[in-house]
Design goal:
By secondary structure, this protein is α/β, with parallel strands linked by helices. It is built from 11 helices and 9 strands. Keywords: Pyrimidine biosynthesis, Transferase.
Length: 316
């Protein structure tokens, strides 16, 4: 496997291998010396045409912990903001000797276009393309679920996960439905009808318009940010109305299963899709998702650029 563009690029066994490798590499993050020499001499470019904090910094930390050289390339202040095409940017990176490009782009399919063109020969990793996919986020979410709820199991067989909120504009939702179902979990999505994409019936997920109906029956609730920047029309009456029906608050948390957890890919609209007290509660693993993201992205880079994973116990 050379590229990671979509969850569909991974078989179940390949996804599990990345999660297992992440578990081994997590030991590096916990060690006094947070470095492995694995990618020394490799050059990795973070090509972010959309704003990002968590994903960009997470990939940068992951690459540096594997001793790679990292170049951060953002659209603002670069030739991209002057109208340079993706082709010209890619050819520039090729000339600089980039071994891998981690791309976030506002256009769905941009990562695939880059990977399948002849503009560059390096590895391409999709860090989010439009409203299409965000595979590394789904992998870190699966890692978090497995770590908290599966007690040593390799897959997610038997789990029921609810993904709630702005499904229409969420690349995270699409990648998570694909991966969680691939790993054996049952997935439900809940949103107002206006925030569900056309054709969602073909997704491998149960569709609900009643968030309260789902709450007592799921092992994890993944809240999604309302993506106001992608909305050019009115999708719900007002913020108060949205929170009333699809926001996670303390009253709803009381109806969750005893050991169930709360997730959010970030950034959060506190007070809209999730209240501040719930986001900071003991059930919340939102901050842990961020730290897990570094280990998972280390595993992605390790796997794609070396062609192998790490056997259990290799770093003991």
């Amino acid at each position: 496997m050379k590229h990671l563009l979509s969850i569909n690029d991974l078989s179940e066994s390949e996804a599990i291998a990345i999660l297992d490798t992440a578990a081994e590499l997590a030991r590096v993050s916990d060690a006094p010396m947070k470095k492995l020499p694995t990618l020394r001499g490799r050059t990795i470019v973070n090509l972010f045409a959309e704003d990002s904090t968590r994903t960009r910094i997470s990939f940068e930390a992951a690459a540096k912990r594997l001793s790679a050289d990292v170049i951060n390339f953002s659209a603002k202040g670069s030739s991209v903001s002057k109208g340079e095409s993706l082709k010209d940017t890619a050819q520039t990176l090729q000339a600089m000797g980039a071994d891998a490009v981690i791309i976030r782009h506002q256009a769905s399919g941009a990562a695939h276009r880059l990977a399948t063109s002849k503009w560059m020969s390096g590895t391409v990793i999709n860090a989010g393309d439009g409203t299409h996919e965000h595979p590394s986020q789904a992998l870190l979410d699966a890692y978090t679920l497995r770590k908290h709820l599966m007690q040593g199991a390799k897959n997610l067989q038997g789990l029921h996960v609810a993904i709630v909120g702005d499904i229409l504009h969420s690349r995270v939702a699409r990648s998570n439905v694909l991966l969680l179902s691939k790993l054996g979990a049952t997935v439900s999505v809940a949103a107002p009808p206006t925030l569900l994409p056309v054709g969602i019936e073909s997704w491998n997920a149960h569709v609900s318009y009643d968030f309260d109906e789902l709450i007592p029956n799921v092992d994890a609730i993944m809240m999604l940010r309302v993506q106001n920047e992608r909305m050019n029309e009115l999708y719900f009456p007002n913020a108060r109305e949205y929170s009333r029906y699809f926001g996670l608050n303390s009253d709803r948390v009381k109806r969750m299963k005893k050991d169930s957890i709360i997730m959010h890919p970030g950034p959060m609209n506190r007070g809209l899709e999730i209240t501040a007290d719930v986001a900071d509660s003991a059930r919340s693993v939102i901050i842990e998702q961020v730290s897990n993201g570094v280990s998972v992205r280390m595993a992605i880079l390790y796997t794609l650029l070396t062609g192998e994973g790490i056997e259990s116990g290799a770093l003991a």
